[in-house]
Amino acid sequence: MKLFDSLKQFKTIKPDAEFTQRSRTEILLSPQAAPRTMRGVFAFLHIVEAGAAVALVGFFILIVTGIFPATRSITPIQYSVIDPEGLHAEAQAIDMQIQLADIEYPQVTSTVAGGVTVASPAALTKAFATVLGAQATSSASTSVAAAGESTSTASTTTLSVDQALQQLSH
Amino acid sequence: MNHSKAMIVSALFALLVAGAVGVAAFRAPVARAAVDCGISASDIAQITAIQNDPSLTSTQETNQELALRKTLVGETIACAQQEVQTLQTNLASTTVESDAQPLQAQLLGNLNDASNYYDLALTKLNSVGIAGSEAIAQEVLAWRAGTFLPLSENVNNFILWAQNQNLFDTAQTRMTQTEQVVSFLENISPNSALQAAFDSAQSSFGNAESENAAAKTALAQNLSPDQSLGLIKQSLDSLSTTYQNFFTVSTLINNLLPQ
Q1: CA distance A33 to A39
Q2: Are B50 and B61 in contact (CB under 8 A)?
Q3: Model confidence over A119-141: pLDDT tens digits?
Q4: ipTM of the complex
Q5: I need a labelling partner for B56 at 20 to 30 A (CA). Which of A123, B25, B77, B238 fits?
């Protein structure tokens, strides 16, 4: 029973008043944790900082590898100027057009069935123009006929417009 | 850079293909007129056969010969109409800048006049005899030589000139880019050979441009087709010379850049 009485006395134990005062003071003077809102701002700034660092690294990688599309606008050299393939292709297009211009379409001949070659309508028109300009009407038909002989022989040969008109004009 | 190269090469390949199609279209009128549309010598020979047929009376002979002649002259003029229509189609489908559109419209109008001329000849054919049909054939033949041939050649020259304008635009872009690069390099380190090559390119391109403009003027003033075609050829030759100079400039720039 004495033991129980002793244990009950523990309820009345109190710290020393001076100790209590000193402990309270030390606790109040110790550093306090930052408020929750301030921690959020710092976290956001950390994320921005990390993102900016990654973006900067990526930008420099693109610049170094030359993939960045704006490289051309920030560098003075236009690579297409010294690109031989592009130059060659453009020059080839011009050569092709020169060949096209060199085709004297009025004098082009076309081969028809039977292997007989006849002059094109425009070529004959040109020939007739020469003949008509140089000869009197009476002799023109003879000259035209002679011109016609050299261009068409086979009866199945398709006549040009001018050949037909010439033969139908007399 | 590789991506850009691929784009340039692809674009020029497309230009070449378009050019090839243009060549085919350019020559189509001649081939089509000769093969699809003409009448044969044996058709003409039927006239002689009628004239020499002893079984026909004089009236029968005249009537049959007249009918045959009208048919043949009519078919021939219809073929000539097809030539005009082909030229009209080719010309109308040619894309030109706004400053060349009046000229294009003028040529289309001239082709329309040609078509009207043939319509008139066909109408006249209905009411003539044998001598009249011969006269119409002669008239149409002479008109074609004096009027239609120069017109058709000028139309073809205009189409050729219009096709050239893309080449000139491309060359102008290249000239501008080259000028920037040469100017930049000259500021860093003057190079007389590079400057001389670039000056030559500018000079030949200037010639090409003035000849190109003169060709357009010749077409607009309806000068002889040989004159306009000659100017077109000169402008292309000058443009080709410009590209030879571009090659020289390109080589010199490559040598100046660090390898």
Answers
A1: 10
A2: yes
A3: 444 444 444 444 444 433 333 33
A4: 0.75
A5: B77
Of B35, B133, B167, which has the smallest distance from its Cβ to A94's Cβ? B167
In sequence order, which residues have a C-beta less than 8 Å from that of residue B44 and are 6 or more positions away? A159, A164, A167, A168, B72
pTM score, two decimals? Answer: 0.64
Residues of chain B in contact with residue A121, where contact means CB-CB under 8 angstroms, are 30, 33-34, 83
DSSP class per residue in B53-96: -TTS-HHHHHHHHHHHHHHHHHHHHHHHHHHHHHHHHHHHT---
A27-62, pLDDT tens digit by residue?
Answer: 888 877 666 555 677 788 888 888 888 888 876 676
Average pLDDT, chain B: 87
CB neighbours of residue B165 within 10 Å: 15
Write the residue in A92, A96, A165 that is nearest to B76 by C-beta: A165
Maximal C-alpha separation, chain B: 98
Q: Please give the structure tokens belonging to residue A81.
A: 């100027």
The span from the CA of B80 to the CA of B147, in Å, is: 13
In 3-state terms, what secondary structure has residue A33?
coil
Residue with token string 């002989």 = A149
- Give how far B20 is from chain A: nearest CA, Å: 9
- Chain A residue with minimum CA distance to B31: A110
**Min Cα separation B27/chain A (Å):** 7
* pLDDT, position B118: 97
